Amino acid sequence: VAHADQSVPVLSQRLRMSPHGMIDVFVSSTDAQFREVQPGNPPTWADATAYPSLGAIYLRAPGARSDTEPLEQVFDHELVHILVGRAFAPERPPTWLQEGLAQFHAEQHDLQDLRTLAAASFSGPLPLDDLERAFPENPHKASLAYAQSADFLVWLERTYGTESVHTLVRSMAQGLPLHEAVKNATGEPLYRIDQMWRDRFSITSPITWSRLASWDLAWLFSALLGMVAMFVVRRRQRRQRDEIAAREQEEEALMQAIWEGRCGVR
């Protein structure tokens, strides 16, 4: 309760969106209860759901969750869904936009997302237009969709400032299509913004590799050093074995020559 009392005004201010009324929060102690009490049919992997029109958030209690993410962080994610959903009402916000905002403001854009995006260098990110109404059923593509939705907003803010994100969201809430909203937010056409953002995923771009967190780079570097060291050690051992074998052959040949000389073998 205390966290909710703090988060509602903080996230409302960050998003510049009013809660527009009460928000009910239900915490279920079991999976069966979680599915029974809510009005929809959540995915089997869902730890929480939000229904903006009803002003309702449904959470699993820590004991009924498999995810290690703090419950407060999950609540913030769903709270953003309520705020954004009500701001766009009666229309529905694009899936990529509401999920990107939810992850961004719940601070869920993390190491795993960076790994997912780094892997996208080979396949390329999904088109935002394909993520308007739903995310892919495929778990791998769904993970990429979540990661890139947040990443696009993070990149937009870092490149064009905080106000650009607010302008983008406000323009789309007013019903403008994506290309007009992006133009309002950045002053650039959508195709150029899209290309600039996608260029960071190119396999030739150094940013692709720098997107891996320092721990990953250290681990990868250590693993590579270990492989190189193992190769060097084994190569040295092989060379030493060859040298020993060669000396043994020379010694055997010398001893044979001495023996033959002593015995008068011709």
Low-pLDDT residue spans: 211-215, 217-234
The value of Rg in angstroms is: 30 Å
Strand runs, count: 3
Give the overall average pLDDT: 80
Oligomer: single chain
> What proportion of the residues is helical, as a percent range?
55-70%
- Outline, from the CA principal axes? extended
- Structural class by SSE content: mainly alpha
Distance between the termini: 104 Å
Biggest beta-sheet profile: 3 strands, mixed
What portion of residues belong to β-strands?
A: 5-15%
Strand order of the largest sheet: 1-3-2
In DSSP terms (H or I, runs of 4 or more residues), the helix count works out at 11
- Name the helix and strand elements from N-terminus to C-terminus, one letter apiece: HEHEEHHHHHHHHH
What would the keywords be for this entry?
mainly alpha, extended, 266 residues, 11 helices
3D structure, described in words:
The protein is mostly helical and 266 residues long. The protein has helices at residues 2-15, 31-37, 71-88, 95-105, 111-123, 139-160, 162-173, 178-186, 190-199, 206-210, 214-263, and strands at 24-28, 48-51, 56-60. A three-stranded mixed β-sheet has the order 1-3-2. The chain is extended, with a radius of gyration of 30 Å. Mean pLDDT is 80; it is low at 211-215 and 217-234.
Secondary structure layout plus pairing:
Layout: H1 2-15, E1 24-28, H2 31-37, E2 48-51, E3 56-60, H3 71-88, H4 95-105, H5 111-123, H6 139-160, H7 162-173, H8 178-186, H9 190-199, H10 206-210, H11 214-263
Parallel strand pairs: 1-3
Antiparallel strand pairs: 2-3
